Amino acid sequence: MHLPEEGSLLRIFIGEADKTEGKPLYEWIVLKAREQGLAGATVLRGMMGFGANTRVIHTFKIERLSEDMPIIVEIVDVKEKLEAFLDLIDPHIKAGMVTLEKAEIKFYRAEKK
């Protein structure tokens, strides 16, 4: 797959406890991204955060492990494909935030075997 130099970054902020169709929402999003032929997806688990649903700070500490840590799903591809993908997943995101930003793609390549 070839990506042009000018792409976009879709960043989805959700909670670790969010679910859809019996799966963690972040896992469902990544599987849907692969089904839709997007370039790739990465899931990041936050160490600390809060959001629109709650003003309680969720944190990863030895004394108390939060059960709903912040999760960020990042996907880079062309803007048109990401906007179509967002239309597909939007109804499944009950709480969170989504951003779409310009991304300058320096390279996208697979290891040659």
How do the SSEs run, as a string of H and E? EEEHEEEEHE
Known CATH architecture: 2-Layer Sandwich
Largest sheet report:
4 strands, antiparallel
Shape estimate = globular
Uncertain spans, ≥5 residues at pLDDT below 50? none
CATH topology: Alpha-Beta Plaits
Give average pLDDT, whole number.
Answer: 88
Strand order of the largest sheet: 4-7-1-8
Topology, element by element:
Elements: E1 6-15, E2 19-20, E3 23-24, H1 25-35, E4 41-45, E5 48-49, E6 58-59, E7 70-77, H2 79-89, E8 97-104
Antiparallel strand pairs: 1-7, 1-8, 2-3, 4-7, 5-6
Summarize the structure.
The protein has 113 residues and is an alpha+beta fold. The chain has 2 helices and 8 strands; from the N terminus they run E-E-E-H-E-E-E-E-H-E. Helix content is 19%, strand content 35%.
How would you explain this protein's 3D organization?
This protein has 113 residues and is α+β, with helices and mostly antiparallel strands. The protein has a single domain (6-104), classed as Alpha-Beta Plaits (2-Layer Sandwich), CATH 3.30.70.120. The chain is built from two helices and eight strands; from the N terminus they run βββαββββαβ. The strands form three sheets. It has a four-stranded antiparallel β-sheet with strand order 4-7-1-8. Strand 2 (19-20) and strand 3 form a beta hairpin. The chain is globular. The model has no long low-confidence stretch (mean pLDDT 88).
